[in-house]
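does this look right to u?? adenosine-5'-diphosphate version
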Amino acid sequence: MRDNRTRRTENHMALRIGVIGGGQLARMMIAPAVELGIEIRVLAESDGMSAQLAATAVGDYRDLDTVRAFAKDVDVITFDHEHVPQEVLRALVADGAAVHPGPDALRYAQDKLDMRARLAELDVPQPDWARVTDADELQAFLDDHGGRAVVKTPRGGYDGKGVRVVRSADDAADWFAQTEAGDALLVEELVSFRRELAQQIARRPSGQMVAYPVVETVQRDGVCAEVFAPAPGAGDRLAQVAEGIGRLIAEGLGVTGMLAVELFETDDERILVNELAMRPHNSGHWSQDGAVTGQFEQHLRAVADLPLGDASPTAEWATMVNILGGPADGTFESRFEAAMSEHPDAKIHTYGKAARPGRKVGHVNVSGDDLDDIVYKARAAAAHFA
Ligand code: ADP
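got this back:
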């Protein structure tokens, strides 16, 4: 493996981090990279993406030659999304590139069946689940679980796409028809949850870990709408259980960079793992303005194997409200003046995306000592962009 640190010192070069994927997560790494003196380069899927400012290459992240050419000029490779194929990741590692998170960890964020199997080995609490290859197997699971269940496509789902509540095996017939021989669907018990939570952990290749406080996430139509940090009413027990699960997964899977663990808090007060993301995540956006070290800076520090920053909140409460859809008339910029003058304590983040119903085009963060007050302000500021 290349000794990046030695090379940098000798050549008096800035550390170069290459981000594969040009979406809003890459975009939000740009400012902290500039602050830290890190040179950030982005391989974007197309022109005009959110992270255009740092896009030094445009190309297909599934194409090994494209990714190899991009990786050759950077010290560390990291990601805006989890879709880079395993073959490509493994070829980069074989070339000697520092890839964080690496393929051995990332596979569990790429495939929900692999994730369930690995978490079972680690004894992490999760919903009952099974791998089903045909209608009979699904029906058997339904019969054992009160006639209702959640079916998921193991790969490629996001924002609730690829997730379906079923009451009979017929409800998943179209998905079975699309699976190739040997492929399977994931079926899970329909969890009766009180609310959804998320736990963020940062982990360096050398093993150091830092935990953020557990947060509550509110989803609407399968999309994250709001986050409250820390999770309201979370006592020491809940905070410790969530952090313990996060640390166990980060270490057990060898995650490097930011890890987000999506959790269910069940009606009978159990904490179960829903799914994992190994990158900055929507549930951690509040930390940009509400923690000593925001998740985007922390991700860069972690993947570069630099000492991690303090993840403590800077106020009693922080909230994040997503701007979904955006102004249909496309007049995003003209909305700033009113939003800013009415809500001077709101931190507005935009992704440079065109308006489209339901699309995440930005978010608003507000911190303070009164949760109701900051949630009101964040919603009101976000509403200016609806
Ligand atoms: P995605 O990859 O699209 O984010 P998730 O697996 O996180 O999909 O599921 C999306 C949403 O569906 C979750 O946030 C949750 O609200 C609901 N959901 C997922 N799995 C279950 C389950 N086993 N029981 C009940 N609700 C679920």
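The CA atoms of residues 214 and 239 lie 6 Å apart. idk if thats expected tbh
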